[in-house]
Structures are given as structure tokens and as C-alpha cells.
Amino acid sequence: MSETPVRTERRGAVLEVTLDRPKANAIDLATSQVMGQVFTDFRDDPELRVALITGGGDKFFCPGWDLKAAADGDAVDGDYGLGGFGGLQELRDLNKPVVAAVNGICCGGGLEWAMSADIIFAADHAQFALPEIRSGTIADAASIKLPKRIPYHIAMEMLLTGRWIDAHEAERWGLINRVYAGSDLMHEARGLADHLASGPPLVYAAIKEVVREAENMAFQDAMNRITKSQFSTIEKLYRSEDQFEGARAFAEKRDPVWKGR
Q1: N-to-C CA span, the chain
Q2: Over the stretch 62-107, which tens digit does the pLDDT of each residue have?
Q3: Which of 20, 90, 143, 161 has a CA 20 to 30 Å removed from the CA of 216?
Q4: What is the pTM of this model?
Q5: Which DSSP symbol is given to 180?
Q6: Is residue 100 domain-resident?
Q7: Catalytic annotation on 213?
Q8: Are 193 and 212 members of one domain?
Q9: Which is catalytic among the residues 3, 16, 90, 132?
């Protein structure tokens, strides 16, 4: 087993996070707690702008909950740490882009972890499923998220039968953004992460807060909150140096220099 279940690497403003627990990158309580701290630190570090998540090896992205650990006493309703299972899906105020590079089997809680990202790239050999039904339990976060991400009937088929789909079918239904050859996956994901890291962080933060908070709001209510700067990120953006820099750069026909303030 790796010395640590979670490897991190800073590449400029990008934090690369690799879940590395051989043989399958399953998540137990202790690993989830480590992940929660990693993503909390990412959220709170002003020098970091984008996270890229992936799995160690080339066979598994993440199969979700570690059933062997559960058999040894890990409680399914135990303390997952900051951000809930996998550290991402319940982490409050995460207003930075997260990219997932799915490099293999992605199922159960691993699929829920991937869906916590904003953009998902996958290797052409990746496979996706929610097999919880076969072990007599519920894919809780996926039951909430998946019918909002892909067609209802496809989501319900996956939830009710545990059917596996390959990367190309996942792309067809809009579950993931793009499929790449396994040898190209990390190059493409890193290229996207670097591109995002060069963009306007205050705008990203505003987009993420608005999308998150407006999900269950009426359109006009959400618009009113935006126009009245009632989102904290909108308030900060409209009074920022970056807001003026964007306008100046456009007028001067040059690339903007974003400072995040």
C-alpha cells in the first residue's frame, strides 16, 4: 500500500490529487478524512485555483466505499471527515473549479466522487456503475445527483439495476465531458486544469456559487439576488480589481492579468 492513501502535487496554481490505495483505490473512513483535509486546504489556499483529481494506476479510478474496511468495523454512517464522503461532495463554499480524470473503474461512491467535480474527462477503458442495489443498499448521493445530470430513465436504470456503462455511453448521456485514449488522459486533463488556472478566479467563484445556490430557486428569484449583489462572490467580483482589469484589457486589446482581488 502507498505510504499515504492520497498523493498531492502542486503545479503552479493547480493541485493534483491522486487517490492511491492499492489494489482498487477504495475509500475507508480514515482515507475520507484525509481527503476532506486535502480539499479543505485547497479551498482555503489563495494560491491554488484549480484541483485535478484522479486515481492511482490505470485500472481503477475509485470503486467507492471500502467493503473490506466495513467488514472490519468501519461504520457506513461513521465520520467521513470534512466535506463528507471523499471530501468533496458536501464541502461548503468550494468555489474553485475541480476537474476529474477518470482513469478506470468508477462506480458506487467513486462515481459520486467524480460527479463532485465540475468537468469530467475519462479514459476510453473507463467503466461506470452504481452497483449498490446488488449489496442491498442505496447510492445516496447518486440518487440525488444523477437524475439531474442525465436523462431520468437512464439514471433510474443505473440506480435500479446496477448496469455498467462504458466511457462512450457515459459521454453520450452527458455524464462525462470527453473520452480520451488512456495514454492521453492526464495530458488532456492537465491542459484543461492549466487553462482554467489562467482564468479569472473571482468569476469562477461567482459562477460556482450562483449555480449551486440557484439550483432550487425560481429563475427570477435567482436573478434578483444576482442583480442586487446578494451572492457574496458577486459582491466581491463587482468591487474587485479584476472586474476593472477585464474591461481595461478588452479596451486595450490585450490579455487580462487576473490577480484574484
Answers
A1: 42
A2: 999 887 877 777 777 789 999 999 999 999 999 999 999 999 999 9
A3: 161
A4: 0.94
A5: E
A6: yes
A7: no
A8: no
A9: 132
